[in-house]
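Problem: given the chain below (327 residues), write out its structure.
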Amino acid sequence: MEIVYRRLPDRERIFRQELLHDGPECKFSLLIHPEGEEPLNVGEVKLQPGGALLWYLFPERPYELAGVYDPDGRFLGWYTNLLRTPEISEGRWVLTDLYLDVWQPADGDARVLDRADLEAALEAGYISRQEARTVEAEAAAVLRAARAGRWPPTIVKRHPLDSVDSLRLRRDDPARYFANLVISRLIGFGMYLFGAISLTSLLFAAFTDAFTAPGTAQLIWKVLIGVEALLLFLFAIAGRLPATRRPRPEETLDERILFIGSLVTGLAVFVHTDSRLWRSALIAIYGILALFLAIFATSRFRYERRFPWVAAVGILVCMAALAVLLL
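Solution.
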């Protein structure tokens, strides 16, 4: 997409950036500084070719932010560029710079830059005194928020440079992205719950008689496990646990893999239908496969408006296998 960057009175520069997320409240775009170009001045650093700027544009706000990264992907700082309300059209954004910037280095204090440029523009008549006061107030507000640890906004902090591959997956295949997001959060919930149950049970076994005799201790153990399960489920589904924030594109599933898995596993249903050990394991496996396929079916229908044949057939296979195992 095309970014038209204007600086009054008549400076204009055009950048080509990759649009990663086109949300109504915040839009993400990526600029990799091209090889062979001169270093780019950003805040108080000179960005070398191969370095990255991950931009966050807020359509109704008078600023844009960038996470600044060197060619090795090392974070250098946050750059807030004060500007007029962006002019946004499909494939083209026009940004008019209002001189002041706020720079937050990775290893230092936030500060306002280019006050002299604003004063010079005011004296030359490029900007009105009212607009100058407005941009000064906005810069001061950003600076206060940065010094208080409240800047940049949460949506920015949740999407650093290492989230770019996930953002591309979300842009290019939203059904697969959201299906894997839900599945990964359910898997994460199961892992965290297993750990919580193990630790809680170990403590109760060490200090109480919860597992040797029914009574108050056992009731407390059950209630505590229930509370842990509820809290972990809510945190996992909301993506608040470390392993549940976003799917990794290189590890994502699709319904074809799950369908093939259900067919391959189905061989064991007919070969080992009389084995209690296999029956218990396969019931769990087919229950999980059916759930995951249902998530894919819902996601495909929601985002692509098409009937998910592969997922639907996979669910039928799982249901048939469960019927054989349970009867």
